[in-house]
Specification:
Strand content: 5-15%
Number of strands: 5
Strand order of the largest sheet: 1-2-3
Number of domains: 2
Distance between the termini: 33 Å
Helix content: 55-70%
Radius of gyration: 21 Å
Bound molecules: adenosine monophosphate, tryptophan
Length: 328
């Protein structure tokens, strides 16, 4: 039987953190053997919010390197940079012309993002979900592994695909979101009521995948807990719950085992042990990252191969789209 296709994208807007790893990248790496995969660094999505050019250039490369370092490999997956395959922009324009404005007005992520930015909001930010639909539809992806926050965008993509097919024939495959049963929401360390996120102002909230052991110990030490004593999984105690959840995701022990392990211990013990687990879990990833980026030209070559493979598929698909619409 032919393997199904997986597509997912990740922005280059900041440093990748433990939430990205546990909620996304680690799952992509472990599921890659069952599927044909495309993992894309979505730099065109990243510029929907203003970026400093030299920082952006470095982050694009860093994110791509971390995908490989996390175990995604060229045998099973195509890893590439979105702007290097021009068909993403081309298809986004075509889809713009068939997407009703009202559908975009319903996107909750745009509402959230535009509230914090006010007059800075660009047309690109509003159009972001259409570019995302183009990403997915170019590769005939069956499954789109993402966090819960992206479900609405994947549903929009399905609607756009169906609308297009209704007008022009069976061209697109409507995809499905694939939301991992856990790891979907790692919370901030200092502010455990908010998601761990890439934004640079919240350094104390997130553990970057490239943080040094001392940085990791320092951030976990300062993590918010509560005034109780016992160490238990409990949603109503977001700080302790989050530390335990990270511990669980990394050690793969069950909740009861973990609670027994920490019975009678202090928050200080929990934090110290968690820090060591995080450090040891990230060590192999950091070593591979350093190898990959230390070898001159190695990452660049891998990305050039990725763009070539993705480009071949994207070119075939855009031709089919153009023919179906009378553009060719
Ligand atoms: P982003 O950082 O928003 O570009 O997201 C990249 C991927 O990581 C998406 O699949 C997100 O759903 C996932 N992700 C981002 N933040 C978290 C978090 N705090 N916990 C779990 N998954 C996350
Ligand atoms: N919007 C996604 C995020 O912020 C990133 C993304 C862009 C994406 N294009 C995609 C995810 C296509 C899945 C499929 O996480």
């Amino acid at each position: 039987m032919e393997k199904k296709t997986v597509f997912s994208g990740i922005q280059a807007s900041g440093s990748l953190h433990l939430g990205n790893y546990l909620g996304a990248i680690r799952n992509w790496a472990s599921m890659q053997y069952e599927y044909n995969n495309y993992f894309c660094v979505v730099d065109l999505h990243t510029i929907t919010i203003s970026q400093d050019p030299s920082t952006l250039r470095a982050k694009i490369r860093e994110v791509a390197g971390l995908l490989f370092a996390a175990g995604i490999n060229e045998e099973n997956s195509v890893v590439y940079i979105q702007s290097e395959v021009k068909e993403h922009s081309e298809l986004a324009w075509i889809l713009n012309c068939i997407t009703p404005l009202g559908w975009l007005h319903r996107m909750t992520q745009f509402k959230e993002k535009s509230e914090t930015q006010k007059e800075e909001v660009s047309v690109g930010l509003f159009d972001y979900p259409v570019l995302q639909a183009a990403d997915i539809l170019l590769y005939d992806a069956h499954l789109v592994p993402v966090g819960e926050d992206q479900r609405q965008h994947v549903e929009l993509c399905r609607d756009i695909a169906q609308r297009f097919n209704y007008r022009y024939g069976q061209v697109f495959l409507p995809p499905e979101a694939f939301i991992a049963p856990f790891g979907g929401r790692v919370m901030g360390l200092a502010n455990p009521d908010k998601k761990m996120s890439k934004s640079e102002e919240k350094q104390e909230d997130s553990i970057s995948l490239l943080d040094s052991p001392d940085q990791i110990r320092g951030k976990i030490k300062k993590a918010t807990t509560d005034s109780l004593r016992d160490i238990r999984f409990n949603q109503e105690r977001p700080g302790v719950n989050n530390l335990l959840t990270i511990y669980q995701l990394l050690t793969e022990k069950n909740q009861e085992e973990i609670e027994n392990h920490f019975a009678g211990k202090s928050y200080k013990d929990l934090k110290e042990q968690l820090a060591e687990v995080v450090i040891e879990s990230l060590r192999p990833l950091q070593e591979r990252y350093n190898e990959l980026t230390g070898e001159q030209g190695c990452l660049e070559e891998m990305l050039a191969r990725g763009a070539e493979r993705a480009g071949a598929q994207a070119e075939r698909k855009i031709r089919q789209v153009q023919e179906s619409m009378g553009l060719r």
